[in-house]
Amino acid sequence: xxxxxxxxxxxxxxxxxxxxxxxxxxxxxxxxxxxxxxxxxxxxxxxxxxxxxxxxxxxxxxxxxxxxxxxxxxxxxxxxxxxxxxxxxxxxxxxxxxxxxxxxxxxxxxxxxxxxxxxxxxxxxxxxxxxxxxxxxxxxxxxxxxxxxxxxxxxxxxxxxxxxxxxxxxxxxxxxxxxxxxxxxxxxxxxxxxxxxxxxxxxxxxxxxxxxxxxxxxxxxxxxxxxxxxxxxxxxxxxxxxxxxxxxxxxxxxxxxxxxxxxxxxxxxxxxxxxxxxxxxxxxxxxxxxxxxxxxxxxxxxxxxxxxxxxxxxxxxxxxxxxxxxxxxxxxxxxxxxxxxxxxxxxxxxxxxxxxxxxxxxxxxxxxxxxxxxxxxxxxxxxxxxxxxxxxxxxxxxxxxxxxxxxxxxxxxxxxxxxxxxxxxxxxxxxxxxxxxxxxxxxxxxxxxxxxxxxxxxxxxxxxxxxxxxxxxxxxxxxxxxxxxxxxxxxxxxxxxxxxxxxxxxxxxxxxxxxxxxxxxxxxxxxxxxxxxxxxxxxxxxxxxxxxxxxxxxxxxxxxxxxxxxxxxxxxxxxxxxxxxxxxxxxxxxxxxxxxxxxxxxxxxxxxxxxxxxxxxxxxxxxxxxxxxxxxxxxxxxxxxxxxxxxxxxxxxxxxxxxxxxxxxxxxxxxxxxxxxxxxxx
Length: 682
Description:
By secondary structure, this protein is α/β, with parallel strands linked by helices. The protein is 40% helix and 21% strand. The strands form 7 sheets. An 8-stranded parallel barrel has the order 4-13-18-21-22-23-24-25, surrounded by 6 helices. α11 (428-445) runs parallel beside α13 (468-474) and α22 (616-640) crosses α23 (659-674). Residues 191-262 form the Malate synthase G alpha-beta insertion domain.
């Protein structure tokens, strides 16, 4: 296991004992070591005193769970699962040792897919496919089960970012286009009326495509009104209605704004009318904005994008998640010399033409990503040793979410009564089944009904990709999500086949046979497992947060692939990516894909090895880019405690860097060092 203490490092030559920590004698405490902090005994555990107080004074009151029950349940969790956690990690190591030896023994022989597959089956890396099945995951919110749209990922350690993501359910299309490179270089001076007009024209073109009128264009509307039959637009002095009258939902009023709410492909679009607003005053129809339903869901991340290693850090992470689940998280900050306070947005009340009302969710459905099985923590120790951080995340994040389940009025996160936990970096069905049993224990300890906790399976490790159907089957009663991710998955691709040879560079990797097979298999296996209408099938992050014009051109490929969600780096990106789900009817696309042949497993298992010498200028470019990314990430992580940063590459393109990007860069350097493409001196 990996211990992330700020001050303790693993000494050379020291092996891991039972719970996967460094022997205390080998790592004497420094001033900031967790071993010098006061500990409070709880059911045989040594709990950081501040952390124990946080759990007992802030997390548990209002949940119906007593402190004694919580700590007894936690002690049982460690007794029942900590040793197995370590054994699963040892299994990873042993499989990797065998794979490395197989590749070394073959030397430079031509690739033999059949022999490789037989070998992986023999050692238990590949398991038998389950018989046909369909997931049975209980009550699931529509944002997961039936709606298709963008998904944000945000470090929950930053309260302002966490709130921004939660509130990104609705986004201004005018603002997203005006303030990004979608309309050309981002403006640096004062207000640009010509840019405004171009934005308005582009938004009208979107409305004509998604919500057309039965006569004329939205660009020519001089008035929008509502009567008993729905929306009426005036075009050239004539009344026009929506080509699909059923797309009109109702009217939403917010102070001086009157919003006409429409629906297309399950997503809402609001035409905001205010002739007194500067933008509305310049519009013949009084249209001052087009607001899109954007981020349907948001992952509040406790893993790759945060820097959380000790009790103080973890209290901050859990405290923000707790505030989101209670609904009282707030953050005050200075902007433009003015103090502002950000809170969770309320729901939206829309009045139908018949006078009845409907409530639309005002916030993204919030999911929480725990750490994987690898990490350990000193926040809670047993017998003087660190314990698995994943078990702590499971117990605490679920306990925090009980506050949402207990609500009887006001805005809620899950109206279905579910808790959504994304579990990353699991290797194969054994580890997925382990997670299933961990959360079953947590549910029992906290008094929750079985399968209240839903699990998101991140398909980012090669053994999971190769056994995806078996992984889904292992958690079929609680799975809500699968997704693909180029960065972590490529990192593990290189790591697993490290001894097979030198890998192609990043550009070659993006067009590699295994990658297309990986992306296609994920969708098709998800559909074959009955996930349509029951769970999300997701795609990975757009890693260039400032290149949104490019994203608008490229990322439509994700809904075209049959994915019902895909990751975006900001609320602005979520608003723009929402346009893609109006272009593509994902449910219809999934119907088209259902039953199509799944790409052969051999395509997935064939490593993208270089078939000849790689030009030295390309090698040096990859070396510089990898080093730049690693240093840019690590320096901010260590010096500033920032787990996710925008770091310029060698071409000065801003890229998101977190542990996933660090992983792929490190594996490239390790692989090319191993096979002599670069030297340690370089």
